[in-house]
Amino acid sequence: MAETSFKYNFLRYNQYGVLKANWPLKFCLIFLCRHMFLLLALIAMSFKGGGGREMAYLTPLLDKAFIISDLPALAVFFVIGARRPEAKDLYRWIWRNGRSIIYASVALYLGIVTLRNGLVLSNYAAVEWVMIAGNAVVAFYAWRSEFIRDLFHEFPPPPEEKEKAGPES
Q1: For 29-79, what is the HEC assignment?
Q2: Domains: count for the chain
Q3: Quick one: which H or E segment has residue 113?
Q4: DSSP state of 13
Q5: 6 φψ region: left (φ > 0), alpha (ψ -120 to 50), beta (else)
Q6: Could you tell me if residue 140 is inside a domain?
Q7: 17 or 107: which carries more pLDDT confidence?
Q8: Which residues pair with 38 in a beta bridge?
Q9: C-alpha to C-alpha distance for 28 and 152, rounded to whole angstroms
Q10: How many C-beta neighbours within 10 Å does residue 20 have?
Q11: Which pLDDT tens digit goes with each residue over 121-153?
């Protein structure tokens, strides 16, 4: 019986033999998409009956300009669920460039914050500093994590490649 050697614990791999996205990556992507999720929550609350006082408190938290910075991370988050052998080439490209796309999302956010507040550090509120720090943590994790580096290098091969790679008789 042939043994397949894995770099990581075998439970970290899916049925296609590629690494599964771990929870820290999913949490990082949710953090990067927070403006989009807040927008969806506000829309859902307005359908429920106007939202009342909660809407008045939550609406100022949503700055629609920051949704632009959510889109690259949202694409990576979507492709997590689309990693199958029959996936489109676009999904493969997004996954191969996932780390760079995460960096782009962080850079867009920092660029928008800088355009809004300027380079004077005293213009930044404490909440903005926390969000900047959160983005820095996400970028650092994507940069330093060997698992993330390996994860974005793996995508299930297309069905025709799988048949070619199989044992020949």
Answers
A1: HHHHCHHHHHHHHHHHHHHHHCCCHHHHHHHHHCCHHHHHHHHHHHHHHHH
A2: 1
A3: helix 98-117
A4: B
A5: beta
A6: yes
A7: 107
A8: none
A9: 15
A10: 17
A11: 888 888 889 999 999 999 999 999 999 999 999
Does residue 91 form part of some domain? yes
What band does 169 get if pLDDT is binned at 50, 70 and 90? very low
Q: Reduced to 3 states, what is the DSSP secondary structure of residue 19?
A: strand
Please give the Cα distance from 98 to 93 (Å, whole number). Answer: 8
Cα–Cα distance for residue pair 59/53, rounded to 1 Å? 10
User: Quick check: is 6 in a domain?
Assistant: no
Give a yes or no: residue 161 inside a domain. no
Percent above pLDDT 70 for the chain: 84
82-108 exposure pattern, b = at least 16 Cβ within 10 A, e = fewer: ebeeebeeebbebbebbbebbbbbbeb
Q: What 3-state DSSP class applies to 81? A: coil
What domain range is 89 assigned to?
Answer: 17-156
Res. 118: pLDDT tops 70: yes
Indicate the DSSP class of residue 118.
Answer: -
Write down the residue that tokens 């929870």 correspond to. 23
